[in-house]
Amino acid sequence: MMDILSWVCLALGSFLGIVGGIGILRFPDFYTRLHAVGITDTLCAGLFLLGLAFQAGLTIASFKLFLIFVFIFFTSPTASHSLANAAMLGGLKPKLSNDDTTDSSKLGDE
What domain of life does the native source organism fall in (predicted)? Predict the structure, then answer.
């Protein structure tokens, strides 16, 4: 049962990683791309670590995986917020319209 639960967590984590990658490619500007990755990476890493903890059982390895999760849980959203704040202070404006005439490869440098 633990093996099945582990594989479910690993598969869901993989799915969220792919969704975050698609978000980087599909969204129009820096802020929406950052939002797509900032949301999915924490949960993706959490599901990976949970799946690995199920594989390890109740050992010191699972405790170490839990500590890694706590570190990622606090630092990943903080890093996303800091990046968005630095971009805003640097003068990068969010794209507010649905105008398809701009080049989305510029990361919002309109």
Answer: Bacteria
